[in-house]
Protein 1
Amino acid sequence: MLDELAPPAHAGAASPTTIEAGAEAEERAVELLLAHGYEVVERNYRCEIGELDIVAADGAVMVFVEVRSRANTEHGHAIESVNRKKQQKVSRVAEVYLAHRQPRYEEFRFDVVAITSDRARDITLYQDAWRGGL
């Protein structure tokens, strides 16, 4: 009886389809960044407070790249999901990254790669998408 009431083992976890879609979005983002002359430094940096999708270098600037994707625009464009709360979280994780990795960059910025996978399969790079406290 209790087994019937227990949540499935994967409750709260992303489904395999969601994980695959996220991985595909990140691959597309990396391709776009490379085409724009970025050097990918690290992917999926994780710490106790969150994750950075992509850490890259754009010349002498270290760039923290947030990748957002949506299947369609029914609930808005992917860029709209990077709200103030998300920006603050990514900024805090970037601070941890800088403390742990101590990269040799004097300038930093936050970019967003937004992907909509509907018929057009739009992908857009938003450079300097917000100002963090770095």
Protein 2
Amino acid sequence: MVVFLAAAAIIEVLAVPLPGYGLFSAAFPIYLAMALQPSGGGVAALTMAGLTFARGRLCDLGEMPGRLRGVLLDLGAGLLGVTIALVMQDANHLSVLSAILGGALWLGLHEGLAVCLAEPLSAKEHSEWRPIYARLRGPRVGLALAALVLVEVAALKPWLVLALLPLLWTTHLTAYNTVHRTYVEEVEHVREQLDDSQQQLDRALGRAERTHQELKLSQDERILLEEYPKALGSTPSLERVIDVTVGLSRRIGRAEHVVLFSLDEGELMPVAHHGGHRNLVEEARLGGKREPVVEQARAEGRWQTALLQKVPGRLFPEDEVVAAFPMGEDVLYLGRARQEFSERELRLLALLAGHAALALESARRYRAEKQALEQHAQANRALSGWVDRLESLMNWAVTTAATLDQSAISEYLEQSLCSVIPHRDGMILRRADNWTVTRVWPEGIYDIGAVIELAESALAGGRCLLLDDVNRSRFDRPFPDTVSLLAAPLVSESGPIGAIILGSPEPDAYNRQHHDLLVMISSQASVAYSNALHVEAIIEARQRLEESQAQLVQSGKMAAVGVLAAGVAHELNTPLGAIQLAVTAAADQLEEKPQAALKKLETADKAAQRARDIIDKLLVFSRRSEQVEERVELEEVVRSTLELAELKLARDGVKLDV
């Protein structure tokens, strides 16, 4: 019994749910074989009831009423079939006949009970359940036949029931595939219905869209034609006017080709178009292709229509139906392959051409005025820039003119270059015996050889160098990553002074204005450096002259001292002799007449003081001294001079009265 119980449990777990209510289970042959075993009727009934209720609870995913109906269907048909089989077995002891009767009764009862229990289903649920249940009739008949085999096998050896489980599994798979195929067919049917509905909806939407477009086109034509000048008046761009005119013309005329022709050097040339002949429009200038109707409309001043055949020389030879509308200096061309333009289309196009002519004229006038204003503003900006630069140059010139310090001139020069000419690297070089870098900004690495080569070239040519790309020249880059260069010489009347070098990492960074500005700055800098050099030379010459004059004055003093030495020696001998006599006399009278000796010593002291004064004055006169301005008493200077010459003048008979 355990084998039957395990096999039934496995089969019940694999039951296939049906839409609406119920499950398809292949376990009835196992229950029948279990019931026909000796003393197996009660066990089979209990097993069937328990597993059926458990299966309904676990495997059936429907609502509770549907689950109960499924349990009643399988349990009712199964118990009655098993009961009849047991009764027949007890009567004639024929298991095969009992199995046949039990299986047939189970099959019939299942069909009848299924229909009765399906009554509560809704129409939709019943329509889904009925086809699937009908398709499972074949697998149920197969289960009834499988019950005969299972009963015979179980009678021989019960464990062989497990070997027949694949047969029941096959029936289960057949039922599963049947249910799945029914679902798929239902989905396909629903999809076909949806596709049909979608196609009908698309057709209806297409008709509605066409109707809407026709209504909208008529309304848009009226609105656009009435509001055309007003709409373009807010933004009178020529390109906008042309685009709106060409696009609206194509909508109204429904033409394959719409072209706007304008006068260009006396000839009508295409300036805008809509259509697939872009190359032909571009080649009209070179190939000489024309549209006769366009020239006719321009000449007569009214719109023209024509039916033209394919003739050579036309711009659009495939257009057999053409129309042209003059619009002042422009002509609007429309071309079709076959269908002629209606009166309504021609009237609307003529109205549009009249509005477009005014709009194009207004747009051209607006563009001309705008270009003039832009040129005027550009000229003002350029002039303002030049004024600012010239003002900066004037301020720099005034500043440099107020100083003669070369370091200050270099500093002011750097500031002026940074404010007037855009650059990243800058350098000022001075040339005396050798080249010297006096100023470089910003501080960084530079190639002194390349710098000197540029400076020498600028000095040799005597003009400013402008290099758009130093990599394409014979010069090396003086600064890292430098591409554009400006190099100007610094030259004075006496010879070369130095050079200015400016660099930028961008190609083509400098133009003629930058070149001219650097020429002006370098000229002014040359004058400033030249003036500073001249002043330094004058100061040095003056210092040398002052030194020479001091030497001449000293020589004159020494000569005068030599001349006066002879006379002064005599003058010094007088006080010295008086000193000697006074000292001798004082020594003789010191013991006897101390007062007289003291007077003699005082006389000697006065004479010695006079001699010392004479010597001091001679030393002052003979010494070389620095020129120091200070206040002196002229009377004292004259008195000292006369004291030196008093004795000589007295000897010569000259009397002084001071």
